[in-house]
Amino acid sequence: MMPDSPQMCLNLFLSVAGYHAGAWRRPDSRVEELTTLGRTAEIVRQAEDAKLDAVFIADLLGWHDNDFGKHPRMHPLEPITTLAALAGLTERIGLIGTVSTSYTEPYNLARYFASLDHLSGGRAGWNIVTSYGGGEQFGRDREPHDERYARATEYLEVVCALWDSWDADAVVNDRAGGTWARADRIHRIDHAGPYYQVAGPLNIPRSPQGRPVFAQAGSSEAGMAFGSTFGDVIFTAQPDLASARRFRETFRGRVRVRGRDPGSVKVLPGLMPIIGPSERAARELADEIADAIDYPSAVRALEWVLGDLGLADRDPDGPLPVELLKPPEEFDGGRTRYEILYRLAVHERYTIRELLRYRARAAGHHPVIGTAGQVAEEMIEWFDGGAADGFNLLVPHLPGGLDAITGELVPILRERGYFRAEYAGTTLREHLGLDVPGPAGRDDAGRPDRASSRSTFVKGI
Amino acid sequence: MMPDSPQMCLNLFLSVAGYHAGAWRRPDSRVEELTTLGRTAEIVRQAEDAKLDAVFIADLLGWHDNDFGKHPRMHPLEPITTLAALAGLTERIGLIGTVSTSYTEPYNLARYFASLDHLSGGRAGWNIVTSYGGGEQFGRDREPHDERYARATEYLEVVCALWDSWDADAVVNDRAGGTWARADRIHRIDHAGPYYQVAGPLNIPRSPQGRPVFAQAGSSEAGMAFGSTFGDVIFTAQPDLASARRFRETFRGRVRVRGRDPGSVKVLPGLMPIIGPSERAARELADEIADAIDYPSAVRALEWVLGDLGLADRDPDGPLPVELLKPPEEFDGGRTRYEILYRLAVHERYTIRELLRYRARAAGHHPVIGTAGQVAEEMIEWFDGGAADGFNLLVPHLPGGLDAITGELVPILRERGYFRAEYAGTTLREHLGLDVPGPAGRDDAGRPDRASSRSTFVKGI
Ligand SMILES: Cc1cc2nc3c(=O)[nH]c(=O)nc-3n(C[C@H](O)[C@H](O)[C@H](O)COP(=O)(O)O)c2cc1C
Ligand SMILES: Cc1cc2nc3c(=O)[nH]c(=O)nc-3n(C[C@H](O)[C@H](O)[C@H](O)COP(=O)(O)O)c2cc1C
Description:
The structure is a homodimer of 461-residue chains. Chain A has 461 residues and is an alpha/beta fold. The first copy, chain A, has helices at residues 37-49, 65-69, 79-87, 106-119, 145-163, 221-230, 241-257, 279-291, 295-306, 335-346, 352-362, 372-384, 400-415, 428-431, and strands at residues 9-13, 54-57, 94-100, 124-129, 171-174, 179-181, 189-192, 197-200, 213-216, 233-236, 266-275, 366-370, 390-394. The interface between A and B is large, with 74 and 74 residues. Chains A, B: FMN binds at residues 59, 98, 145, 149, 219-220.
């Protein structure tokens, strides 16, 4: 045991019935409880008992017959409300949710996360996405990719200014003097930029973390520029150690260029452990789940990413029509994961069935099939090898797949000194080992100490 | 006991430190816990133990130094997140929250409430407001009053269509067939109106209540037209039995004109019980709380409603400059409550101090000062007299004022046969005795039965 050795960050990607597209069809999947708070809370408490850093709820804005409707791999409810409900039913685990900067008013978003951070006692995290779909639901034309990030950058200025509009010592509860909150500690903001005009202050006192932890998963140039400016946690899908290490190195370089400490940014590649009592049993389990995929809907899910290739009419065990695939540099969406599929189809010559089984399993995230010890070994190799600061864990199936993670995998990592036995702090920022904004958020002269709240990128207000 | 006699609806207006503007200054107010989920949940569970129908969280969009900052009478966190957090910590009580139709994307709002209804097992309620402020926070010019309601009307069409886009039997969990949800039970919507263009379906399965209960509190002509079309619960501020009865009669007339059953709309005037062991003790308590008001901020709060009258420089015990007051028909805001203040100033010749004490107490809602028995008597008189279907209870101070309500007042009403001893159902709609959309939401021929989901006002989709 090396209690002072570097610790992995472990995040649970929430999926109630299993992230593998075939998982919900297993007899014990409890898919009937997909939309219940009871089952969701049970899963998250299991992660909390294992002392995981956080749970993460992903979110897509539209309804996708292929990806969502037919495969309830993603949590079906809205993230912010779900995380708020979990706030009262958990005590320590971080609560990270996706909200799009393209379709939510910044003043509203600032309120949702300030509230969530209060309600959870400092455990809120925001996965910032710019959404590649969504316009149809909001009566807006789809904005070009880089413009979505330009909008997102201004958005972050606005919400940070709102979160910083109350000093940490604004609320004084001075009964005798009749002052609940000091007006001179609450600051007006008047943001006027190309995308947003927002007056403040916020109408919610400063929350325990000052602002939510920022997670981000952009993989394009614009996405990485944005992520290296704002991100505390970086989610990424990487096929192998070498590319994960390259990504992390590149990313840390950009963080340094921004004048930030790379140690304050946690890069978490996705990892799906498929665990069995033996390597062979794990492989059999992986095949068994994959056999449960519904072929036609898996085809649609694949085409949702790759574009319409007429795959339904082709031989499942034949090659893909690679000549119809867009080159990755022309792809406007989740590019890293597209690149992985592209590579498998073009260079590794996967058949249609092989490729859709690959995607149905972990959607481009790294699958590791073996015993808990073997999975732990691989995670340690990535971690020690500079490929990851921890992992975003995708649970293939439930309850078995989660039991294997919390009951077998995490104890091994703990035993080996790579993962905590107890939470040391109470906030998500503390779990992740990130700077905590000073409790007063003020410098020695009593002025707001903007640096201590890590908002150096926010224009003065 | 008359178990089958008509029952009052009782709603708790949530205030953590007391709704009376002087209440938070009392030594036992626990104002230090204002933003904690723990204290909020404790209060709501106390209301649930008393079997109240619902708790309601009001919301204003801006930050008002006078009304909010200095008097933490209103819940300081964002309603939807707070109610979601309460969903997991309560079992039966309804959860009603204010969200503005003017500044929230309908697709987002539909998701928040569908989620809240799932998370709470059918206890969600939405207090629909059009907001008289808010433009500054959203970079928008203030819309004229009646246009806000025109927008709200289209808004309701959109969100109801989204909530109705999944039939109740869409999710089939058919493992063998590989179908989680039936595509033919999920309906596309393509709303295109003057204010909104929204594509659907929603990306969340139909929730237990189908949609949240609709609360509404508009008092203008446009507001009442809107409320009589959509409202299940009507909040109102009424100074006395006669005017409350007039309001309820008028309102029920309008409901009838819309082809709806007036029995399906619950009119709940606000009522603040200030309870003491004797009438005299109650009066002393009322004075004691009123004495705790901070005079300058109470003046600002009054001028926030009445307009700038230079009251700070006038003799507190002199008359108001009534010649500067706008006639009620020119007032663009919460008109009923303005009318009450106007009447007290102009016709009852209240001094400045009397008027601000009046407003600081219950902000225009009906205060009843006396023993629990006397308060119960007055509530029964209003209820039997056709002035109310129940009440929106404003707690003057906590914990004492809430203890008096749950420990003394409610038991008397129960004893007299006016209030339930146990919840009969599990959803808010059931508590209120409102129609519940059929579990399948389909007619005998298997087609969506729109009437049973009470969406007759929604255009066909
Ligand atoms: C682990 C992980 C989780 C993600 N979650 C979401 C999500 O919840 N919603 C979403 O719209 N995109 C999500 N994405 C996609 C990214 O946020 C991003 O939109 C995508 O990688 C495209 O970024 P780019 O435009 O910078 O290439 C996720 C990506 C990863 C790797
Ligand atoms: C009990 C009660 C609660 C209310 N809650 C809110 C609220 O939370 N937010 C808000 O903006 N207005 C609130 N109002 C104001 C009304 O919704 C409405 O905006 C106001 O009466 C003006 O309506 P009108 O424009 O139709 O006259 C409330 C009114 C009452 C009586």
